[in-house]
């Protein structure tokens, strides 16, 4: 296999909750104590994105999927671990050295109502990244580039003088995609790009993303909670739970033969058109807080197959016969 | 007689520059214990339809015409005083965001007791016992403890269970649920939907479910309405519509779902987007986005025609039915 375009290894991200030193100190039982608390958003994630693929990261709210996206893009700095782009480590670069990577890597956000500057016209919105990354380009070159991306995402050139608020959600998301494509990126991180849109508009935007992938040879890291979209769009899928990857497989394999008990429950919960009376796999309880992570396998409290080992020991990703990577003691021991 | 019958309902919003028509000629009925789905994209008017049943449309909106008959009495013509006896008591409502529905400064118990005392002459102690019973019905873990907790102490899924418990407090005839699971994760959504379905069945409560999720509608409801730009464009048994939608818009909605497409292939897409209320196209409001639109579609809104058990407002479908009839006549 060729070397991956983006590789993430041992990634961890904690968000400190305890505030300043004074806020951390409490007086208990006659002595001062210092208490520190943190949200453990990502706890050791290893992922490799191959050139030309669409790697989807799925999971429920709070599983750390957006944090992975933001950390890869350099919007957050990792607490531990490394991120490599085309063999080069990028998470510790100086600002100046990171510029070429910022052009190659672009992001599309969930909410097109928030991601467009309300005080900029569409023309200005699209011009800004081009001028920033290509300060030597002539105004004609910039204009031609803008026309090219506008055309490729199917937006009218007359929109240039209008503002973001004048457009519907689907149109705004097109503009946001055009902005990302304007600097000819190789790698796009899309964080729930269609969740805020209506069904008929979702299909339009998904088609647009697939067309762009084909014509520009893009590589995607696609964050979503919608499994139906993953099945349609993804080359491979990583399922996350409480800051860890619990299963990683080809899309087809994952949907036909999910191995991890959490993946199985997640798949069974998708409302499908066919069945009248769905048979959901019921999970006990709810996702625990990422402030106090459970010991051992983070899923053990809700897992019907959990035993003593699951409560003690953190499972590592192992590769099964089908090629699926799964982090589960029950699968490893052949209990499942 | 149907439990709830909406006849030719028109809802308008009086804004500067004239009235905007949010609902036009909405007619449907709901039987006792029936589960009805209301489907459409944002701006179709499904929430306005739900709110107008209990006359909860805030100004500048108003009901401009039509009747809302609940057990034969017209809710649209009732005084605020009379309506208050029905709201929450006979017809309960569940909203999308549980945090907006619950009062953040009152405990769950206080809010439930308050709702009970507003409608029934019972003691606080009795009210608390009923509240506890409903919390048990929605399978909340440790229900006694929840009565004394505040909404922020509960998770999203648990809050929505509390909302369902509150909706069930006074044994309503109808529950109107406006996107009750949209704010929740898939696994929690599946649990809440199961719960709502089972409770409605057990208690023989009619459910009107408003959602944009065709998967949910297909699993939960028996009949469904599809709305577009303030009109019902198709209504009938859920299974029949899902399996064999007649209206081009409904067909498009179903075919645009990623699960209907071949993985990796382009999805079916409906061009354009829903028109704003300020400039609804003439005739059939869907015609600018429709592949089958003809001159006729631009002129006047099509009448409903019956195809199987489904009512559809579309000239194309009407023409097809007409053709079929003629062919059958020619054969015989």
TrEMBL record, chain A:
The UniProt entry, under Pfam families, shows: ABC_tran (PF00005), oligo_HPY (PF08352)
Which residues belong to any copy of the ABC transporter domain? 25-267
Superkingdom classification of source: Bacteria
This protein's record includes keyword Cell membrane? no
Q: What EC designation does it have?
A: 7.4.2.9
Family annotation (CDD domains): ABC_NikE_OppD_transporters
The molecular function terms in GO held by this entry are: ATP binding; ATP hydrolysis activity
Q: What are the alphabetically sorted keywords of the record?
A: ATP-binding, Nucleotide-binding, Transport
Please tell me which top-level EC class this enzyme sits in: translocase
Any GO BP: peptide transport
Role summary: Part of the ABC transporter DppABCDF involved in the uptake of various di/tripeptides. Is also involved in the uptake of phaseolotoxin, a toxic tripeptide inhibiting the enzyme ornithine carbamoyltransferase. Responsible for energy coupling to the transport system.
Q: How does it assemble?
A: The complex is composed of two ATP-binding proteins (DppD and DppF), two transmembrane proteins (DppB and DppC) and a solute-binding protein (DppA1-A5). Five orthologous SBPs (DppA1-A5) are present in P.aeruginosa, which increases the substrate specificity of the DppBCDF transporter.
Q: NCBIfam families this protein is in? A: oligo_HPY
Protein name per UniProt:
ABC-type dipeptide transporter
Q: What organism is recorded for this protein? A: Marinobacter flavimaris
Automatic annotation (TrEMBL), chain B:
* Alphabetized Pfam families for the sequence: ABC_tran, oligo_HPY
Q: Which CDD domains match?
A: ABC_NikE_OppD_transporters
Question: Any idea of its EC number?
Answer: 7.4.2.9
Record GO terms (molecular function): ATP binding; ATP hydrolysis activity
Q: How does it sit in the membrane?
A: Peripheral membrane protein
Sorted alphabetically, which InterPro entries does this protein's record hold?
Answer: AAA+_ATPase (IPR003593), ABC_Ni/Peptide_Import (IPR050388), ABC_transporter-like_ATP-bd (IPR003439), ABC_transporter-like_CS (IPR017871), Oligopep_ABC_C (IPR013563), P-loop_NTPase (IPR027417)
Positions of the ABC transporter domain = 6-254
- Catalytic reaction(s) noted: a dipeptide(out) + ATP + H2O = a dipeptide(in) + ADP + phosphate + H(+)
Main subcellular localisation: membrane
Which GO terms of the cellular component aspect does the record hold? plasma membrane
Entry's localization field: Cell inner membrane
The GO biological-process annotations, alphabetized, read as: peptide transport; transmembrane transport
What UniProt keywords apply to this chain's record, in alphabetical order?
ATP-binding, Cell membrane, Membrane, Nucleotide-binding, Transport
Q: Which domain of life is it from?
A: Bacteria
Q: Does the keyword Membrane apply?
A: yes
On whether ATP-binding is a keyword of this UniProt record, the answer is yes
Q: Give the family, as the similarity comment puts it.
A: Belongs to the ABC transporter superfamily.
Assembly mode: The complex is composed of two ATP-binding proteins (DppD and DppF), two transmembrane proteins (DppB and DppC) and a solute-binding protein (DppA1-A5). Five orthologous SBPs (DppA1-A5) are present in P.aeruginosa, which increases the substrate specificity of the DppBCDF transporter.
Read off the PANTHER family from this record: DIPEPTIDE TRANSPORT ATP-BINDING PROTEIN DPPD, OLIGOPEPTIDE TRANSPORT ATP-BINDING PROTEIN APPD
Q: What does this protein do?
A: Part of the ABC transporter DppABCDF involved in the uptake of various di/tripeptides. Is also involved in the uptake of phaseolotoxin, a toxic tripeptide inhibiting the enzyme ornithine carbamoyltransferase. Responsible for energy coupling to the transport system.
Recorded protein name is ABC-type dipeptide transporter
């Amino acid at each position: 296999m060729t070397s991956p375009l983006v590789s993430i290894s041992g990634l961890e991200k904690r968000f400190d909750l305890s505030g300043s030193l004074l806020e951390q100190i409490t007086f208990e039982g006659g002595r001062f104590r210092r208490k520190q608390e943190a949200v453990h958003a990502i706890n050791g994630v290893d992922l490799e994105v191959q050139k030309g693929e669409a790697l989807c990261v799925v999971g429920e709210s709070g599983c750390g999927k957006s944090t992975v996206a933001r950390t890869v893009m350099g919007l957050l700095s990792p607490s531990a671990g490394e991120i490599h782009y085309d063999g080069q480590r990028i998470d510790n670069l100086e600002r100046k050295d990171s510029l070429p990577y910022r052009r190659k890597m672009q992001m599309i956000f969930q909410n097109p109502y928030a991601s467009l500057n309300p005080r900029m016209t569409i023309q200005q919105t699209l011009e800004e990244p081009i001028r920033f990354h290509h300060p030597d380009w002539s105004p004609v070159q910039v204009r031609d580039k803008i026309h090219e991306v506008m055309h490729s995402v199917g937006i009218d050139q007359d929109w240039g003088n209008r503002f973001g608020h004048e457009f519907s959600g689907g149109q705004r998301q097109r503009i946001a995609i055009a902005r990302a494509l304007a600097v000819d990126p190789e790698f796009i991180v899309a964080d729930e790009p269609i969740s805020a849109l209506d069904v008929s508009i979702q299909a339009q935007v998904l088609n647009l993303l697939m067309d762009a992938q084909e014509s520009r040879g893009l590589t995607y890291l696609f964050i979503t909670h919608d499994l139906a979209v993953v099945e349609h769009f993804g080359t491979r899928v990583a399922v996350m739970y409480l800051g860890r990857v619990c299963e990683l497989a080809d899309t087809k394999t994952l949907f036909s033969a999910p191995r991890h008990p959490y993946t199985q429950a997640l798949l069974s919960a998708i409302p499908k058109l066919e069945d009248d009376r769905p048979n959901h796999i019921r999970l006990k309880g709810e996702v625990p807080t990422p402030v106090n992570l459970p010991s051992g396998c983070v899923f053990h409290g809700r897992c019907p197959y959990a035993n003593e080992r699951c409560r003690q020991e953190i499972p590592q990703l192992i590769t099964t016969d089908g090629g699926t990577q799964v982090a589960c003691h029950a699968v490893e021991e052949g209990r499942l | 007689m149907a439990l709830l019958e909406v006849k030719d309902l028109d809802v308008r919003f009086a804004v500067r520059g004239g009235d905007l028509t949010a609902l036009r000629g909405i007619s449907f009925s709901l039987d006792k214990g029936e589960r009805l789905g209301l489907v459409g994209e944002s701006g179709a008017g499904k929430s306005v339809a739900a709110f107008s049943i209990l006359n909860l449309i805030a100004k500048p909106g108003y009901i401009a015409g039509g009747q809302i008959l609940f057990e034969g009495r017209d809710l649209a013509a009732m005084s605020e005083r009379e309506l208050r006896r029905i709201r929450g008591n006979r017809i309960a409502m569940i909203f999308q965001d549980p945090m907006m529905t619950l009062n953040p400064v009152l405990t769950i118990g206080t809010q439930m007791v308050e709702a009970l005392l507003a409608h029934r002459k019972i003691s606080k102690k009795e009210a608390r016992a009923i509240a506890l019973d409903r919390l048990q019905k929605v399978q909340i873990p440790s229900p006694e403890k929840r009565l004394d907790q505040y909404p922020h102490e509960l998770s999203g899924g648990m809050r929505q269970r509390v909302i369902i418990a509150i909706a069930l407090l006074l044994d309503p005839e109808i529950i109107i649920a406006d996107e009750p699971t949209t704010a929740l994760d898939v696994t929690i959504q599946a649990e809440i939907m199961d719960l709502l379905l089972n409770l409605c069945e057990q208690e023989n409560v009619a459910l009107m479910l408003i959602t944009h999720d065709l998967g949910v509608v297909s699993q939960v409801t028996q009949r469904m309405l599809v709305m577009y730009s303030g009109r019902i464009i198709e209504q009938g048994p859920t299974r029949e519509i899902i399996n064999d939608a007649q209206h081009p818009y409904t067909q498009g909605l179903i075919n645009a779902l990623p699960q209907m497409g071949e993985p990796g292939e382009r999805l079916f897409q409906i061009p354009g987007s829903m028109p704003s209320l300020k400039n609804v196209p003439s005739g059939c409001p869907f015609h600018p986005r429709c592949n089958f639109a003809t001159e006729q579609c631009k002129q006047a809104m099509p009448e409903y025609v019956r195809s199987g058990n489904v009512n559809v407002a579309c000239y194309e479908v009407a023409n097809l039915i007409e053709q079929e009839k003629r062919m059958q006549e020619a054969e015989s």
